[in-house]
Design a protein that fits this description.
Elements: H1 3-15, E1 21-25, E2 31-33, H2 36-42, H3 46-49, H4 68-77, E3 80-87, E4 93-104, E5 108-117, H5 119-145, H6 147-163, H7 167-192, E6 200-202, H8 204-215, E7 221-224, E8 230-232, H9 234-252, E9 257-263, E10 266-271, H10 299-309, E11 313-318, E12 324-329
Parallel strand pairs: 7-9
Antiparallel strand pairs: 1-2, 1-5, 3-4, 4-5, 6-8, 9-10, 10-12, 11-12
Helix pairs in contact: 5-7, 6-7, 7-10, 8-9, 9-10
Length: 337
């Protein structure tokens, strides 16, 4: 088979790929063959891609790209695989698994490259890491928060046995009730923090409509700027909004104004209440943290658990109107269609 025929056959093979990008590099690491499927995968026209080095596909904004020279040298000897962020022509990024293999026709003749979009796998691994972090925190809380009431029970039980004073029984009853509430709250947080394994296309507006019904007083004002659809567990997302809206009402009063709108890779929920002191912003998501005498301190903790279960991030900053602003980011929006 001559080179022309072999080249045509190889081009047909490349054109048959649909779920990832398959292309070739010359011996210097420049793109030498860029089939239609690679064009569709990355969005770069053939004329824009051919002749450019492999690192044109890497996303510099997402961290330090791998050293291409080292990658090419290693792949010249044997197939090499590397995971890193890639960037499409429209500026969107994805986590890609890039496999380079040497091409040889009696001598080294360049590289074959396969790139797969493994963003979903990366997000799932990220969710598992966060779940493990939450699990460790959960066990730490159990050992800490339950130790104090257990000490109280032990102390008053000894005093009751020694004196027979009924006041110790009253303390024991109140303490056991408190422990029961604590365990129920912690179990609720743990369940909400389980990784979302089967997300579905979710309309934020509809979720907000359900959540606001029981979380905001009728005298409050809710202003919503449309947020693109997301892949999520809609029931758990309802609870995120319920807790955030209830938090705004608890601190901002019955006439609080809450605004919700899109961010780059996420959305925000902000209010015109008293806000959160800067020194406290890193603590508001901690289990049991509250500034209210009648608060449990688990509303925002549940928010963080659910957000983390989706592989997203949540943070709190000051709002433009002086209140609290919660930003949920790290979201991959999906098309409305």
């Amino acid at each position: 088979m001559n080179d022309a025929v072999a080249g045509d056959a190889y081009q047909q093979l490349l054109e048959g790929v649909t779920d990832h990008a398959l292309f070739t590099l010359d011996t210097e690491g420049r793109i030498s063959m860029w089939p239609e499927t690679a064009k569709q995968f990355y969005g770069h026209d053939t004329g824009d891609a051919v002749g450019r080095r492999l690192d044109v596909l890497f996303a510099e904004k997402q961290g330090e790209p791998p050293p291409v020279e080292d990658l090419l040298a290693e792949a010249k000897v044997d197939s090499t695989e590397i995971d890193n962020w890639h960037e499409r022509a429209d500026g969107s990024v994805f986590w890609g698994t890039c496999t380079l293999s040497p091409l040889s026709k009696g001598k080294f003749d360049g590289y074959a490259v396969i790139v797969r979009d493994t963003t979903t796998r990366k997000q799932y691994e990220r969710m598992l890491e966060r779940q493990n972090d939450r699990l460790k925190e959960f066990t730490d809380i159990l050992s800490h928060d339950l130790r104090n009431p257990l000490n109280v029970l032990s102390g008053h039980l000894k005093q009751y046995k020694r004196t027979g004073d009924e006041k110790h029984v009253e303390v024991i009853e109140k303490t056991t009730d408190r422990m029961e509430r604590l365990v129920e709250d912690l179990l609720r947080v743990a369940r909400q923090g389980q990784v979302v394994e089967h997300p579905e296309p979710t309309d934020i507006g509809r979720v907000l409509e359900v959540a606001s019904g029981g979380a905001l007083p009728e005298t409050a004002t809710l202003r919503y700027v449309s947020v693109p659809n997301v892949m999520a567990d809609p029931d758990r997302l309802v609870q995120v909004f319920e807790n955030l809206l209830r938090n705004s009402a608890d601190h901002g009063g019955d006439d609080v104004t809450v605004r919700i709108g899109p961010l780059s890779g996420g959305f925000y929920v902000e209010d015109d209440g008293p806000g959160i002191p800067e020194d406290d912003r890193n603590r508001v998501f901690d289990h049991g943290y509250t500034t209210r005498e009648d608060g449990t301190g688990y509303g925002l903790s549940v928010v963080r658990s659910i957000v983390g279960a989706h592989g997203w991030d949540v943070s709190v900053v000051g709002a433009d109107q002086g209140g609290a602003r919660f930003e949920i980011t790290g979201i991959e929006f999906i098309d409305d269609t």
